[in-house]
Amino acid sequence: MEESLEFSDLLRLIEERSSAFRAAMAAAPGLDVQVPTCPDWTLFDLAQHIGVGRRSWAATVAAGPAATAKVAAKGDTVAPQEREALLAWLATSTQLLLDALQEAGPDRRCWTWWSRSQSPSTSGAVARHQVQEIAVHTYDAQLTVGAAQPLPEEATLDGAGTNVVPGGLAVPFTPLITP
């Protein structure tokens, strides 16, 4: 499938949505608030999911085509409980991902879970999926704190073109594993 967004736009959206996610976390009355769209998770759980996911994808992209499975996250893989430290950890997690993607460029082969779908197994496709991941979870966090904003149109249109095909999803559905 042809990408509708340039690689630089994907990286920009990852940074913009990640910043909006951190802003929602900073505005939360507490990190133990249940996320209505992820009912088994608190805001802290959601932050842990995002941060570890960023770190793991950074390591997977950096490993390139040599990786035969998702690479474990590097560094601090447990989110700090204190809010300011958590926000810094999330910012570092995002920067690790952006650095790995920038170094790899859009066409580097790497392991992906969607290897049998229409998306290529490249760092550009990882960036595209990470835009969708952070866009949706930013909405989750914003909704939780009562400040939901619409998803960016360019991210939603691009995401629909990636994961939805006539007749259903481009890949078999696998339930998420909770943190």
UniProtKB/TrEMBL annotation:
GO terms for molecular function: isomerase activity; metal ion binding. Transmembrane segments: none annotated. Keywords: Isomerase. GO terms for cellular component: plasma membrane. Residues 12-142 form the Mycothiol-dependent maleylpyruvate isomerase metal-binding domain. It comes from Kineosporia babensis. InterPro entries: DinB/YfiT-like (IPR034660), Maleyloyr_isom (IPR017517), MDMPI_metal-binding (IPR024344). This is Maleylpyruvate isomerase N-terminal domain-containing protein.
